[in-house]
Amino acid sequence: MVRKIGHVLALLALVVVQLLTLVSAFLCLVLCFGLGMVFLFPPQVRMIRWVTGMTRYLVRSSSGIVIEPPYLPKPPPPQPQPDGLYRSHRTLYKTPRMPAWNDRWKWMLTDPATWRDGFWLLLDPGVKMVLLPLLILLPGRGLRVYGLWCELLLAATASSRMAGQLSSLNRARNLAVDTQAAEMRRIERDLHDGTQARLVALGMTIGAAEQLMESDPKAARALMAKAREASAETLTELRRVIRGIHPPVLAERGLGDAVRALAMDSALKVSVQVELTHRPEAPVEAAAYFAVSELLSNAARHGGAESVEIDISTSGANLRITVTDDGWGGADPSKGSGLTGIERRLAAFDGVMAIHSPAGGPTTVTLELPKVLPQHWAGDVAKLPRWKLATVIALYGTAWCPLFPQGVVAGIFKLVGFDEKAWFLALHLPDAWQWPCIAFMILLGTAMYATAVAIPAHHKDHPLAPRNPLEGVGFC
Amino acid sequence: MNRVLVAEDLYLLRDGLVHLLQAHGFDVVAAVESGPELLKGLLELRPDVSVVDVRLPPTLTDEGLQASLEARKKVPGLPILVLSQHVEQLYARELLADGSGGIGYLLKDRVFNAEQFIDAVRRVAAGGTAMDPEVISKLLASNAKNEPLAALTPREREVLEQMAEGRSNAAISQRLYLSESAVAKHTAGIFGKLGLAPSDDDNRRVLAVLAYLNNR
């Protein structure tokens, strides 16, 4: 109760700020659009957003109504052109300050939420005054009503949510393309500097041996032996490159065994648990594999770990990988480039990484790749066994016969008093048995239809694999 | 004369292997290019030794390895030498899991050195083992924190590596330029330090060492 009264008081205190903001917003609008002092606009918008943000926070803590901020995502920082200048429309700037300001101005001005915020600010003090008696007499109920009012204007709309999704998709796509390109460059460099150079040397050695074949067979033989050695070295080099592109075990055995192989090659004590009935798509497997590989080497290099536990499991259509080590903890994605690399790789699949690494350890990293396994592996659609399917088909195929001709139609014939007996069983029976037989036929037909409907429905309620609800994990 | 089966999907390499083996007095009874053919050949022909590529059609995954494991399950100890472009401890462990010997696992590059390759084929045919040096070095690396292994002298370690690759005392003495009695002394030292029961049989000794290294 005391808390609620406190919340009410806080909301009322906010009215003072709101009124001040309202006055300054009005002045600002006049100065901004009347006298062209546009530089006043962004600070004003920021001020209003602070007030609405405060209100959202108060509403959430007082009535539990969560109001998502509706604002469009911030524009990305301006990128310099190849000549080092920044472009904004048809003007070039030496520093990114003006283009960034322009972007920000446009972002705030075109966001419908800015104007909805303004509208809310105009009406809210009045609404609070109207609700005042309710807020004082029944704070709980009053706060809820106030929360609903705020939700009406301050919550995210479908289009703002869509815009947010679009921009995060855009970011993920750019990241994926960048990662891909960087990977390609790395492979090209490896092949160019390593394998290609070695092959050139090999060709030259063989050429020299060819020339010496007649004049100095002994030297030629020595050169050939050298060439053989060089070819073995080239193969070793090539194997290393291939491992970096797509490890052969991964292609041959899938994620589970590839991670097991990784664990065996590691100097740490690694235990691996895999619970995967089917192989995910190859790109997902590769992303997951390289992420685990990076985490393992991190644990050994920076974490001072001695043993690591890797757990690969599925929940529904999601793939979840947990890597726990007993090192000294304190892993920070903002410091290590390896962790950012993993995040980037996973971003292409909407994957997220959660790190729990208190100083002193242990470190737990959870990778979650949502919806990467096809639905039918997740047990959502359980297939009907063949005999059940046959039963359902047979029931649908025959249930009409007792229900309609033998039951309903025969009944009508009897009611109307037709003489025709046709092939209706009931009408051929002695008088006393006719009605019971008709009733039985109708019941039988209805029961058959009911069973035919019930079998698949019952099956759907009990899919083969139990569905695990997602547990909440804090992501960073 | 040894009857050999060769399974390799690349024509050039298959042909090269067949010629190499024939030149060293082997009788190549079959040269197949896919997993199902391999399994059929292994079970029907029961060759004295088979040289098998891991990656074979139709799936081009580890078809050759699977066929070999399957055949050895039905015919325990059927000698098979597995060749691959890459070596994995995982595969080595699977091949060694039944502990019956007559097994080899080498990188394809080892074919370059015909003498050593043929030596490995002969060893496997005789029920011994031939493990690639790279597998052994990976095994030893992952055993780096193993106390008894760390207590070995550098010389003993060298002998252990050679032994794990599948060589007999005589072969080790030749390769390390040691007398056979010195090698025997080192082997006894290794077995003592690792707490393994000594054995006079070369093959059994090798398997004991590999089982020890695999059993982390």
Automatic annotation (TrEMBL), chain A:
Cited Pfam families: HATPase_c (PF02518), HisKA_3 (PF07730)
One function term, GO molecular function aspect: kinase activity
Transmembrane segments: 12-41, 393-413, 433-457
Family annotation (CDD domains): HATPase_UhpB-NarQ-NarX-like (cd16917)
Catalytic activity, as annotated: ATP + protein L-histidine = ADP + protein N-phospho-L-histidine
Histidine kinase/HSP90-like ATPase domain boundaries: 283-373
Keywords on record: ATP-binding, Kinase, Membrane, Nucleotide-binding, Phosphoprotein, Transferase, Transmembrane, Transmembrane helix, Two-component regulatory system
InterPro entries (alphabetical): HATPase_dom (IPR003594), Sensor_HK_TwoCompSys (IPR050482), Sig_transdc_His_kin_sub3_dim/P (IPR011712)
EC number per UniProt: 2.7.13.3
Listed name of the protein: histidine kinase
Automatic annotation (TrEMBL), chain B:
Gene3D superfamilies (UniProt xref): 3.40.50.2300
Domain Response regulatory: 3-123
InterPro entries from the UniProt entry: CheY-like_superfamily, NreC/VraR/RcsB-like_REC, Sig_transdc_resp-reg_C-effctor, Sig_transdc_resp-reg_receiver, Tscrpt_reg_LuxR_C, WalR-like
SUPFAM superfamilies reported in the protein's UniProt record: C-terminal effector domain of the bipartite response regulators (SSF46894), CheY-like (SSF52172)
Keyword 4Fe-4S in record: no
Keywords on record: DNA-binding, Phosphoprotein, Transcription, Transcription regulation
Domain of life of the native organism: Bacteria
Pfam families, sorted: GerE, Response_reg
Modified residues (4-aspartylphosphate): D53
Chain segments annotated as coiled-coil in the UniProt record: none
Residues annotated as domain HTH luxR-type: 145-215
PANTHER family, per database record: TRANSCRIPTIONAL REGULATORY PROTEIN NARL-RELATED, TWO-COMPONENT RESPONSE REGULATOR
Listed name of the protein: Response regulator transcription factor
Species this protein is from: Nonomuraea ferruginea
